[in-house]
Design goal:
Length: about 425
């Protein structure tokens, strides 16, 4: 099997292949496929941060994927991250290890570019868990009646943001991103397509000529309902402070005369504390008396490709202020070069990697769990409790937990 960057003439056949692999995308007509192919041909030729790669057997395209060169905030530091999406295998070549070969090439591609972390949205979480990917922060979907949102004193600073002001949106987003663990730095093109999408609206909080928050949303209605009854689906809401959030919520509260429900998709695990009534209106009770408030989903997954090199790249970071000598055995069946014992000398939260070390304690875990732990998604003591990590001395569980603990779980708004 040969894997290489796609030539332009292979893009449309790949979109056709993908339409069969993911019929839920509803790429049904020739026009649907043609429009998507044109868009990706343009990206393949002109976007330096993303590219399509194909898998070929005897010269025939049998699968493909899309790479993304991201910059992600790892706490206070920018790190390069390789993203992968649109992994698709032709129906005639399923169960021929094509997807495995694509992922192996993906990892090799980014290791050669000194990028030691990758991320993806899984079509099947268990498939990628076996390849060393750990779970990211869950996303919550809340269905809220508008009058259950707190009504503030004003919505005077809320206005529509036209496409001509896209640079201001990008600038504000990146300002927030640089302060938020897990967020990816974005460019103009990341906002252009959703803002141009028919039926999408963008509003912003504008004060003294400066954007200090934005919301992208659309209306939706169930088939057969009255045109006077609609729901609002919020695609993305980013804000700077309490004043901005209050005006956004006041704006959506004021839509209650013609909007039944507002859907918030958020990675904020405390969002229900904001609502006057956190119940989603289903009247469904979880025994004994717990009112159903939201649905949750597992999505973005992370992977460390090279444990030593990644830890070296973030050596300036303070890990919990801890001081200890730690031996960590990382199991990695999919990336054998990464299966190793790592000796870490930690002094006041700063990690340095040693060849050998007299250690205080030893831990062992799979790279998928280590990736999740390092991103701050799950604490170490929980992994031990679940049997997903082991430790040589229980006296050090609290120390290792503090070493990797963070109050802020990673937030990622990118769709790829």
């Amino acid at each position: 099997m040969e894997i290489r960057r796609m030539e332009v003439e292979d893009v449309k056949p790949f979109i056709e292949l993908m339409s069969r692999s993911y019929p839920g995308m509803k790429l049904v007509t020739d026009d649907d496929i043609e429009k998507m192919a044109d868009r990706f041909i343009d990206l393949q030729q002109n976007d330096t941060s993303t590219a399509l790669y194909g898998a070929y057997q005897s010269g025939q395209l049998v699968g493909g994927m899309r790479f993304h060169d991201f910059e992600m905030m790892f706490y206070d530091q920018k790190v390069p991250v390789g993203g992968i999406g649109m992994v698709a295998v032709d129906l005639l070549h399923k169960k021929e290890r094509v997807a495995k070969s694509l992922l192996e090439y993906f990892h090799k591609h980014y290791l050669e570019r000194e990028t030691y972390m990758t991320a993806l949205h899984p079509f099947r979480p268990d498939f990628y868990k076996k390849m060393g990917y750990g779970y990211g922060t869950k996303k919550n979907r809340y269905r809220v009646q508008p009058h259950h949102l707190p009504k503030g004193k004003s919505k005077a600073h809320i206005e529509y943001i036209p496409l001509e002001q896209i640079d201001a949106i990008v600038g504000f987003y990146n300002k927030v991103a640089t302060k938020t663990h897990g967020m990816m730095i974005r460019s103009h093109s990341d906002f252009e397509r959703p803002m141009k999408q028919p039926g999408n609206y963008t509003i912003g909080f504008v004060k003294d000529g400066e954007i200090k928050g934005y919301v992208g949303f659309s209306f939706q209605s169930e088939h057969g309902d009255s045109f006077l009854q609609n729901d609002i689906l919020i695609h993305e809401m980013v804000y700077e402070d309490t004043e901005v959030l209050s005006e956004f919520l006041t704006f959506f509260h004021s839509q209650h005369d013609q909007v039944r429900s507002i859907y918030f998709d958020t990675q904020d695990e405390y969002f229900h504390h904001l609502l006057l009534n956190p119940s989603n209106g289903s009247n469904h009770l979880i025994p004994h008396v717990f009112h159903e408030s939201n649905t949750q989903g597992v999505g973005l997954m992370y992977r460390i490709l090279d444990t030593v090199k990644f830890l070296d790249s973030v050596s300036e970071m303070n890990f919990g202020g801890e001081s200890l000598n730690l031996k960590m055995k990382v199991k990695d069946s999919f990336q054998p070069n990464n299966e190793k014992s790592v000796f870490m000398k930690v002094e006041n939260g700063h990690i340095s990697i040693k060849q050998e070390l007299n250690t205080d304690v030893e831990i062992e875990l799979d790279v998928s769990e280590f990736s999740t732990l390092l991103m701050g998604v799950v604490p170490f003591d929980t992994l031990v409790m679940y049997g997903n990590a082991t430790i040589s001395s229980k006296d050090y569980i609290a120390h290792v937990t503090r070493l990797f603990y963070t109050r802020q779980k990673p937030v990622c708004l990118n769709r790829f």
